Amino acid sequence: MSNIVLHKANTRGHANHGWLNAYHSFSFASWYNPERVQFGTLRVLNDDTVAAGMGFGTHPHDNMEIITIPLEGDLAHKDSMGNAATIKTGDVQVMSAGTGIQHSEFNPNADQHTKLFQIWLFPRVRNVEPRYQQITLDASLQKNDFAQILSPNPDDAGVWIHQDAWFYLSDFDKDVTKKLALKRTGNGFYIMNIEGNIEVAGEQLETRDAIGIWDANEIEIKANSKAKFLVMEIPMEH
């Protein structure tokens, strides 16, 4: 029997700093919920809107796999490894913080906000050499399918990280139903519905609702409207 945890959009932590409007699926910064610290190795899922011309000053990270998925607009990135790049909607970026990095992120556009997911996973190995990777996704692969955007394997589709995790982005038409099987026994699924209405494990997910499922070998997702969503397969043990 599979286990389920439902995280409705309105139960997330929320902090509006003016320049940054942030929703936290898991405890972050000043928002702490003892029942929402992590889901397996998934530690942070922040849904951020960054005002035009604003951003995060230089700050450190270590021993975390950090994935950034822009949803609207662009995000300019600079880091202590010498990388300077702009991540655009349709891209995915990963940083393995490892032994430690410093980076800054800001919205380079003066006339539009930037929306993004920033996701942190605990790595399976500590103190690796920091690394950076950024790719542009083929959105056509997401149409009515599970398009892999992240894996543990450098030779696989998408970016890779130091964790036995697989991420998929999907863009379903109404009434499309598809199943997705686990890649690794013992992993769980965490599904964040980006927009629209989907049905997973008998639960209706509206925009920004999420569901975690474990002890299940596969999931079935049905779109009750046109919908976009992110599926994360992640190790449950940390």
Verbal overview:
With 238 residues, this protein is mostly beta strands. The protein is 0% helix and 54% strand. The protein has strands spanning 3-7, 13-16, 20-24, 42-50, 55-61, 65-72, 74-79, 84-88, 91-96, 101-106, 114-121, 131-136, 147-151, 159-160, 166-172, 177-181, 187-195, 198-200, 203-205, 210-214, 218-223, 227-235. The model has no long low-confidence stretch (mean pLDDT 96).
Name some characteristics of this structure.
Jelly Rolls; seven-stranded antiparallel β-sheet
Short description:
With 238 residues, the chain is mostly beta strands. Helix content is 0%, strand content 54%.
Measured by DSSP, the beta-strand proportion falls in over 45%
Structural shape: globular
Q: CATH class, anyone?
A: Mainly Beta
Helical fraction equals under 10%
* Number of self-contained structural domains: 1
Task: Provide the residue-averaged pLDDT.
Answer: 96
Spatial strand order of the main sheet:
1-20-17-22-15-13-14
The total of helices stands at: 0
Topology:
Layout: E1 3-7, E2 13-16, E3 20-24, E4 42-50, E5 55-61, E6 65-72, E7 74-79, E8 84-88, E9 91-96, E10 101-106, E11 114-121, E12 131-136, E13 147-151, E14 159-160, E15 166-172, E16 177-181, E17 187-195, E18 198-200, E19 203-205, E20 210-214, E21 218-223, E22 227-235
Parallel strand pairs: 13-14
Antiparallel strand pairs: 1-20, 2-3, 3-4, 4-11, 5-10, 6-9, 6-11, 7-8, 7-10, 9-12, 13-15, 15-22, 16-21, 17-20, 17-22, 18-19, 18-21
Domain Quercetin 2,3-dioxygenase C-terminal cupin: 149-234
InterPro entries: Pirin (IPR012093), Pirin_N_dom (IPR003829), Quercetinase_C (IPR041602), RmlC-like_jellyroll (IPR014710), RmlC_Cupin_sf (IPR011051)
Family: Belongs to the pirin family.
